[in-house]
Every structure is written in C-alpha cells, then in structure tokens.
Amino acid sequence: MKKALDGLVLREIKTGDNDRRILILTADEGKMWITAKGARSTKSKVASLCRIFTYANLELYEKNGCRWLSGGSINNSFSGINGDIVGFSLASYVLQLADEISGEEMGAEEVLRMTLNTLYAIEKKLKPYPQIKATYELFAANISGFMPNLEACPDCSKSDFSPDGELWLDVMNGTVLCRQCLEKRSGGLPLPDTDSFETRNILVPLDASALEAMRYVTSAPPQRIFAFGLTVERSMSLFCRAAETYLLNHLERDFDTLHFYNSIKEEK
Predict the structure, then answer these.
(1) Could you report the per-residue pLDDT of 145-175, keeping only the tens digit for each?
(2) Each residue of 59-95: pLDDT tens digit?
(3) Where is pLDDT greater, at 7 or 187?
(4) Is the pLDDT of residue 193 over 60?
(5) DSSP readout, the chain?
C-alpha cells in the first residue's frame, strides 16, 4: 500500500549497510518508524528527507510489515537551526520532548503544530531561548494532562498577587501557594521531605509576573503562545526554573539533550 503524508523527523538512526531509519511525527497517526534504503549514500534521492528537524511530505509504502520511504518533498528543513549550537541543542531537546509526549497510531496534531512553531521560533530567534524552552515545557505538561492549577492559592483562594509578594509553585501537588499560607502549613519551619500522603515536597519560588506568564502559556491559542514577554530578569529566571522543574518531576525522567543544552548555554 502506497501513501503520502506530512511528517517531522524526530530521530534518525543508521541501519543495515547503507540505510537509515527515521522516526517521524504526523498529525493523524502520531509517531511512526520508516526505513529509507540507501539514504546514507551521497547519491541518495531521499537522504535530505531523513535529517532531524526536517518537515516533509513523505511518500511511503508498506511491505512485510514495515514502512519504506520511496520519495517526497521538503516543506521546511529549519536549516537555520544548524548555524547556532545553542539553538541546535535547544531544538534537539524540543524534539526529544515531542517524542516523549506523543504516541504511535494516535492523533498528534496539536503536538506537531506546537513543535513546528517552536522550531520556527528557535530558528528565527523570535524570543529568548530560555523563554521558548519554558513555553514548550509548559505546553508538554499541559498536553500530557498534568498542568498545575494556577488560578488561586488553594488554602485562601487568593488569585490576585502583588508584584512584590512571594509565591511558591507546589510542584508535586500542582498548585500555587502564597507566602502566608505556606507559613501556616509549615508552622514557620522547613517542610519535611514528604507530606502526610508521602508526596514529595518540591517548592519552586515564583513572583506575580512569572505566574502570569505561566497562566498565559496554558491558556493562549497555539498561534499566540509566544506572544508575551518578561522584561525583569528575575521573573524570567523564575518562570524558566518553574517550567523545567515541574515538567521533569511529572515525567519522572531526565533528558540527555537538556544536559547538553544547559552545558552549552553556560559556556556561551
């Protein structure tokens, strides 16, 4: 059976003597593996379709229970990403997250659209890299079904916080706490490692601006999700730290691409 579909290359691996296998993300069928015969040859007509970050219309056929690439055309190669090592490392992390939060044989239109928008934002440097990263991390948490309740402090129901007020993201319980309620909970003492339900206590500081940015990301339409800014460096730092800490603790795993991004970013 032959068909054509649009897919974003998330991963590529060498196989056989001269072939490649690529993992692509599609809108209707989620992730799928495709084998490209001879794609490692300099004469291959499909080699350019097999590079990570490439979004292409792929022609394939199925034989012996496998999918084989026969041709296609590139929609967007995001070639500008390759010219910036920090951008490249961030884009690699985004692809690894997209792989993590999507499945096979299930629709992934929202994940695909957001991933493409994020690669474009990285390539064109539409926003600071830390902001792009944190935005995608919060999207990943949201689409995976474990976004925190950011509307109000669960203890006092306060939702409007002053710019200089102290706030905390209760990572494992998925809520935001004001300073007064946190002090009441702890009796003024440091919280133990776990609560009465044996849930880890992980608290990340926020301020009102960082919280508003998190609220915006979780409610904005895809085409407007990057349309915000944080002009105060501390607020940006809090926003980024909260997004990464929240996602990694709920996914319960780490990412080698994230370590690479952080190491490269620090060197720069």
Answers:
(1) 998 999 999 999 988 887 777 899 999 999 9
(2) 999 888 889 999 999 999 999 999 999 999 999 999 9
(3) 7
(4) no
(5) -EEEEEEEEEEEEEETTTEEEEEEEETTTEEEEEEETTTTSTT-SSGGGGSTT-EEEEEEEEETTEEEEEEEEEEE--GGGGG-HHHHHHHHHHHHHHHHH--BTS--HHHHHHHHHHHHHHHHT-S-HHHHHHHHHHHHHHHTT---B-SS-TTT------TT--EEEETTTTEEEEHHHHHHHHTTSPPPSB-TTS-B--EEEE-HHHHHHHHHHHHS-GGGTT-----SHHHHHHHHHHHHHHHHHHHT---HHHHHHHHHHHH-
With contact defined as beta carbons under 8 Å apart, do 114 and 142 qualify? no
Given a cut of 90, is residue 139 above it in pLDDT?
yes
Rounded to the nearest 10 degrees, the angle between the axes of helix 233-251 and helix 208-219 is 50
Cβ-in-10-Å burial (0-12, 13-18, 19+) of 127 comes to: middle
Q: For 254, phi and psi rounded to 5 degrees? A: -115, 175
Question: Residue 118: pLDDT band by 50, 70, 90 thresholds?
Answer: very high
Give the tokens for residue 195. Answer: 């609560």
Is-contact 182 203, C-beta < 8 A? yes
